[in-house]
Structure formats: C-alpha cells, structure tokens
Amino acid sequence: MKQVNFKGVNLPAIGIGTWHMGDNLKTYAQEKATILYGLNHGATVIDTAEMYGEGNAETLVGDVLQEFDRQKVFLISKFYPQNATKERMKQALNNSLKRLKTDYLDLYLLHWRGSVPLSETVAGVIDLQKEGKIRHWGVSNFDTADLEELYGLPQGDQVFANEDLYNLANRGIEYDLLPWQRSRQLPLIAYAPIDQGDSRGQKLTQNSVVQKIADVHQVTPMQILLAWTIQSEDVMAIPQTSSIEHMKQNIEAGEIILSDSEMQQIDLQFPGPDSKQPLQMI
Q1: Distance (Å, rounded) from C-alpha 257 to C-alpha 254?
Q2: For the NADP-dependent oxidoreductase domain, which residue ranges apply (predicted)?
C-alpha cells in the first residue's frame, strides 16, 4: 500500500476508522474480524476515540489488539474537550488505555476545541509524552485560525497531525487550511473520506465521470473516491467499515494512482473552493 510520511514516520495512506463500532453484540465478532483483516493486510493505523460509543469502540480495538502485534500498530485515540485539562486528560487517557489493553498510544488527539485554554492542553499532552504514555499528540477539527493560535504557544509546533473532515464533497480546507499545513509540514488525517451523501443533488458514486474512471481502473466508484482523497503525499484517510469485503476494497484503493487527466476530470465535476469556507464537521 502507498505510504505517507508523517513527520518522519512512515505510515499506510489508508487506516481504519472505528466510529459507530463496538456498540452491537450481534455485529461485534464481524467488526473484530474486519479490523483484524485490515491489520493483517497493511492497514496498520487504527483511529478511535473515547467518545465513540462512550468507550465501546476502544474496547473493541483492545480485543483486536490481543490478536495482533501491538508494536506494529499505529494507535490513535482522542479525548473530549471537557477532558482537556491536565488532570482530566490524564484520567481520560488512563481510561482509554485500560479499554484498549495497552500502555501507550502512538497519537493522542484533542477531539475538538472547547473552553479549556490550548496552552493548558499542550502542557498536558507534553507531560503525558514525557511519561511515555503517548508518543505523539495532535488535534482534530481545527481550522487555520486554531492552528495559528496553537503554533503561537510554547511547543505548540510539536503537533503531529490535524484530523479533519475531507472528501470530494467537502473540499473547503483546500482553500487555506491545507496550504497552511503543508507550508509547515503538518500532515492531515482525513475522516469520512468516502462521502456517500449528496453533492449538489447528485451522489458522488453515481457521477458518470467517477464511474468512467472506476471502469478504467476496474474498481468501484467508492474506491476512486477514496483514492482521490489520498493522492497527496501528506494525507492519510481512515475509512470505517464493518465488512471484510469493503476493508479489502479500501486497502486496494491505497494502490490506485489517478492520472493528472483523471484528477482534472474529477475537479471539473466537483470544483475545489474559490474562497474561505467554514470548517465542516460531522
């Protein structure tokens, strides 16, 4: 699978999202098998959060990690904004680590901004780093102004990644946020990289150009959408699926290289932003 370079760390361009997973006992075994399939086939980044099912997704991932070499997994979790103080962050992390059945995270993200000053949050994650409980720290759902504020703080520029909504139907961050991050070598993790909702009244997968390009590559339109998201060298996508077949397709999408002509054809159908857009979140 295509690799991305995250501040000197080589990672697969396609990881595994876990939102809405771990909540249903009837599908638990299938979800566990799907994540294991992904890990065994190169999708060795798992993204979860204490918010997902109020810990259920982390518990699922913890069970998965009992059957795979923990050291080969790049494990990401996130903490609530209300847990962004030093003391609450430490407790939140300990709770997450207990559910995940591990003693460290590779990346710990502030899930979105709240009322806790960023300076306190940065000081807290750096303390956790010094304790060896997290290897890296980062943020999620941050816009350009948020990152500018972060970089203005002592050690704020040590942020490892920003995780935002990004897909063909939601390209707003291309106007200013992505260029800002690229100028500082700050990688992007794209959540919801396959948008199945309507875009200007037409589903992305039903677009004739997307379908035509998919036919040329002998893949599904969904795989083209995912491949589009990771065409840059500094964007990782974390699609979520509970299906082994879809997991297989996600991983295969990590091998698809779209030509300049194909990217231009897609751009004509779904143009990028020509002005600043409000940061989209789901």
Answers
A1: 8
A2: 13-267
For residue 114, being part of any structural domain is answered with: yes
Q: Is 118 inside any structural domain?
A: yes
Residue-wise pLDDT tens digits, 170-207: 999 999 999 999 999 999 999 999 875 444 445 788 99
Global pTM?
0.96
- Chain centre to alpha carbon of residue 277: 20
CB distance 66 to 72 below 8 Å: no
In a domain, 161, yes or no: yes
Give the separation between CA 51 and CA 17, rounded to whole angstroms: 13
Distance between CA 6 and CA 122 in Å, rounded? 19
Q: Could you report how far apart the first and last alpha carbons of the chain are, in Å?
A: 28
Residue 5: Cβ within 10 Å count: 12
- Decide if 216 is inside a domain: yes
CB neighbours of residue 132 within 10 Å: 9
Tokens of 119: 């300076």
Which residues lie across from 11 on neighbouring strands?
A: 4
Helix, strand or coil for residue 17? strand
Contact 158, 166 (CB under 8 A): no
Residue 167 carries which DSSP code? B
The residues, any chain, with a CB within 8 Å of residue 175's CB and separated by 6 or more, are 272, 273, 274, 275, 276, 277
Measured CA to CA, the distance from residue 170 to residue 31 in angstroms comes to 27
